[in-house]
Amino acid sequence: MTDQAAAEDPATDDAPEEGAEELKPTGKMPGKKLILFIVLPILLLIGGGAGAYFAGLLDPLLGVEEEGAAEELAAAETGPAVYFEMPEMLVNLNSTGRKTGYLKISISLELSSEEDIVLLEGVMPRVVDGFQVYLRELRVEDLQGSAGLQRLREELLLRVASAARPAQVKDVLFREMLIQ
């Protein structure tokens, strides 16, 4: 009868009492606690790091020089600009109709040093030929607007830089341009 009495006695039963919840450790964090204790601090650290980077506070730690200091150093190393004036060129432009267009252009080249003038004068026929070939293929529409002139500047700079190598040509400057 002891087995029967133990089975009927609620105090000895392994079942929990009514109204009492069973507490079992699940090993998982609820969603709100996960956000509060893990995700939020990570986001704050990332945001603070990004803010410090964009504010320039991390530049000394990362070894980044200021742009102004780098430009001053580059200007001090290269010295004053040296310019070379190319001969005036007159070319007829590519046209599909009966009317022929002409381009009269005067160009100055910005060089990195005085020694580059001698190198450039030695290859001047090659530079003029490269310019003539390119300019003759242009149409009047190609030269319209600031975007057209910028493309022309970039193309001429590529051609003179490749023809005048090892001389360093920094920029192509337009002194005069007449499109007719």
Question: Biggest sheet, open or closed, and with what strands and sense?
Answer: 4 strands, antiparallel
- The topology string of helices and strands comes to HHHHEEEHHHE
What is the rounded distance between the termini?
Answer: 123 Å
Regions with little confidence, pLDDT below 50 for 5+ residues? none
Roughly what percent helix?
40-55%
With helices defined by DSSP (H or I, 4 residues minimum), what is the helix count?
7
Provide the domain count.
2
The CATH class designation of the largest domain is Alpha Beta
Indicate the proportion of strand residues.
Answer: 15-25%
Average pLDDT confidence is: 77
The CATH topology of the largest domain comes to Tetrahydropterin Synthase, Chain A
Q: If classified by CATH, what would the architecture of the largest domain be?
A: 2-Layer Sandwich
In CATH terms, the superfamily of the largest domain is Band 7 domain
Oligomer: single chain
Number of strands: 4
**What sort of overall outline do the alpha carbons produce when their principal axes are compared?**
elongated
Class based on secondary structure composition and strand pairing: alpha+beta
Radius of gyration: 39 Å
